[in-house]
């Protein structure tokens, strides 16, 4: 009787429904858990952590004073610890140890240090301890002693040294912004114009024409630009001199008094003395810096705006390239090609292309797009720049084309499925009313297939945005000197190399010289990459839904 009921229950399909529901629930929980972990580890990196100060006695009974942030705590087996001292009870199987971010790498030789809890004593959090973010050598931790201007200690009446220090940081930051503007924008523009004049001169020389008037004009423009360059260089010298006036004296954990130029300081803060509102303000400021600023310190500090820009720009260009190719191929296979063995073989090949490892596409893009097409473009149109390549080197265009080839099978398959769902009666009705096959396709069939095209594009964006292996061969770099978009013609420079969030995660996580400092940025960058993919997909889904609603009535008829 029980076996009959069990058989009927299995035949009803109920257990399979519950099994599928359970599998979906577990998958959703795993995804939510992963995203939560990434968000907590990534976003928590920007919160100002308290600075601890304590005496530490190691296994050799050597006592040192340690100042820094407690980054991580773990409970480890006694056997794993390299430092075992007599104070650890013999019956203790697990011992707490802490990872301390000590900073001061240029003086202490390391940024992070593991300490055993039993060796720590006199733990305190003095409010006067300061964390100083530097442009080089990471953070500095210690006590601020004095602010100096032109080598003399500043003793402004009625103003504490900390307030004067913050005012000096604001002043030096303005000077640094002016220096960056002159170096990158003004002098960068002059260098660009000088290079264009050099190329014009090369073209005149290669043409064999002795146009003295044109050469004289080029020479005059070069002299004018050189005068502007010299004036900006002189202005830079004055700004650097002003920047060098400010310095501070800091006592670090080993008691050494260090003099630090304020030109190397990004910001300074006292987390132990900050209120909750001060910490929230600091957190928002750091988060904005992360998404809007350029990286520094081998990509372990600063922001990742160039990587965000490069990722979005590459995905947009890839979408513009892959959609027409995928749609045209699908239309030909479904509407025009004679159905037979050859078309079936092509469809099998298209489906198999989706399973080819992405690094193979990178090798193909490097050989075909970069060396073959790019090299020929340079010989035909940019011979005056040779032997320096213009398009015969990895760049944004070749990376976008490579990913377009990688994702085009998805668009083809999705578009073909959409074309197959359009009723034959619609095509016949259009032809019966006197429309040609091309008009039927353009005005009736393709608009009704638009939602399927967008579905393919959504899948293509989701895959392309996270690819890294092929990009390492066809355009992505660790640090790009300039963005592919600027104010010089043709404004969008497809030949330039670019940064990418996926490669940034790989570089920071596996190639960074300071792994512990880079680890939180891996989570933060991964979270940002997921958010960008979600945003791009939501935009495409919104467009698809609009198109689906528009043509739903036509599909029903």
The shape, in one word, is: flat
Q: How is the main sheet built?
A: 6 strands, antiparallel
The CATH homologous superfamily of the largest domain corresponds to MetI-like
Count, helices: 16
Mean pLDDT: 85
**What structural class do you assign from the helix and strand content?**
alpha+beta
Q: Which consecutive residue ranges, at least 5 long each, have pLDDT under 50?
A: none
Q: Mind telling me the CATH class of the largest domain? A: Mainly Alpha
Q: At CATH's second level, what is the architecture of the largest domain?
A: Orthogonal Bundle
Strand content: 5-15%
Euclidean distance between termini CA atoms: 51 Å
Radius of gyration: 31 Å
According to CATH, the fold-level topology of the largest domain is MetI-like fold
Residues in helices, as a percent range: 55-70%
Count of the domains? 3
Q: Give the H and E element order.
A: HHEEEHEEEEEHHEEEHEEHHHHHHHHHH
Number of strands: 13
Description:
- With 557 residues, the chain is an alpha+beta fold.
- The protein has 3 domains: 51-143, no CATH class; 145-285; 305-556, Orthogonal Bundle (MetI-like fold), CATH 1.10.3720.10.
- 59% of the residues lie in helices and 14% in strands.
- It has 16 helices and 13 strands.
- It has helices at 2-11, 14-43, 105-108, 161-207, 212-243, 276-292, 305-336, 341-353, 358-381, 396-421, 424-432, 437-466, 471-474, 501-510, 515-550, 552-556, and strands at residues 51-57, 63-77, 94-101, 112-116, 120-124, 129-134, 139-149, 152-153, 246-251, 257-261, 265-269, 295-296, 301-302.
- The strands form 3 sheets. Strands 6, 7, 8, 9, 10 and 11 form a 6-stranded antiparallel beta sheet that branches.
- The model has no long low-confidence stretch (mean pLDDT 85).
């Amino acid at each position: 009787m029980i076996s009959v009921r069990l058989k009927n229950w299995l035949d009803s399909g109920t257990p399979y429904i519950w099994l599928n529901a359970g599998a979906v629930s577990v998958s959703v929980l795993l995804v939510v858990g992963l995203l939560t972990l990434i968000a907590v580890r990534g976003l928590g990196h920007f919160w100002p952590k308290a600075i601890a100060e304590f005496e530490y006695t190691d296994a050799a009974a050597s006592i040192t004073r340690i100042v820094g942030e407690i980054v991580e705590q773990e409970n480890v087996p006694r056997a794993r610890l390299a430092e075992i001292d007599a104070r650890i009870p013999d019956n203790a199987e697990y011992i707490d140890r802490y990872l301390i971010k000590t900073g001061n790498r240029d003086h202490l030789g390391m940024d992070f240090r593991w300490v055993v809890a039993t060796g720590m004593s006199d733990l305190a959090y003095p409010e006067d301890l300061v964390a100083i973010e530097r442009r080089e050598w990471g953070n500095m931790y210690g006590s601020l002693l004095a602010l100096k201007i032109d080598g003399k200690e500043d003793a402004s009446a009625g103003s504490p040294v900390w307030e004067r220090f913050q005012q000096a940081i604001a002043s030096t930051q303005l000077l640094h912004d002016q220096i960056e503007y002159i170096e990158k924008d003004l002098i960068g523009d002059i260098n660009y114009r000088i290079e264009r004049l050099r190329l014009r001169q090369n073209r005149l020389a290669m043409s064999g024409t002795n146009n003295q008037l044109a050469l004289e004009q080029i020479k005059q423009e070069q002299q004018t630009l050189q005068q502007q360059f010299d004036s900006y260089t002189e202005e830079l010298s004055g700004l650097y001199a002003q920047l060098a006036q400010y310095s501070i004296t800091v006592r670090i954990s080993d008691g050494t008094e260090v003099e630090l130029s304020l030109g190397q300081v990004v910001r300074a803060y006292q987390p132990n003395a900050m209120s909750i509102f001060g910490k929230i303000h600091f957190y928002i400021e750091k988060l904005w810096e992360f998404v809007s600023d350029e990286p520094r310190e081998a990509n372990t500090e600063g922001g990742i705006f160039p990587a965000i820009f490069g990722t979005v720009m590459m995905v947009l260009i890839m979408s513009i390239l892959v959609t027409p190719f995928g749609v045209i191929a699908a239309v030909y296979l479904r509407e025009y090609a004679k159905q037979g063995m050859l078309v079936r073989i092509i469809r099998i090949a298209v489906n198999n292309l989706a399973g080819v490892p992405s690094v193979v596409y990178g090798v193909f893009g490097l050989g075909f797009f970069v060396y073959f097409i790019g090299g020929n473009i340079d010989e035909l149109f940019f011979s005056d720049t040779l032997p320096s390549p213009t398009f015969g080197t990895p760049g944004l265009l070749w990376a976008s084309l490579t990913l377009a080839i990688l994702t085009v099978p998805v668009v083809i398959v999705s578009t073909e499925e959409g074309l197959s769902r359009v009723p034959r009666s619609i095509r016949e009705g259009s032809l019966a009313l006197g429309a040609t096959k091309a008009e039927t396709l353009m005005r009736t069939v393709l608009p009704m297939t638009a939602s399927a095209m967008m579905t393919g594009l959504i899948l293509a964006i989701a895959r392309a945005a996270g690819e890294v292996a092929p990009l390492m061969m066809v355009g992505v770099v660790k640090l790009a000197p300039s963005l592919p978009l600027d104010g010089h013609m043709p404004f969008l420079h497809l030949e330039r190399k670019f940064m990418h969030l996926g490669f940034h995660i790989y570089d920071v996580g596996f190639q960074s010289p300071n792994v512990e400092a880079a680890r939180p940025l891996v989570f933060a960058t991964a979270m940002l990459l997921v958010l960008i993919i979600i945003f791009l997909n939501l935009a495409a889904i919104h467009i698809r839904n609009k198109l689906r609603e528009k043509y739903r009535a036509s599909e029903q008829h």
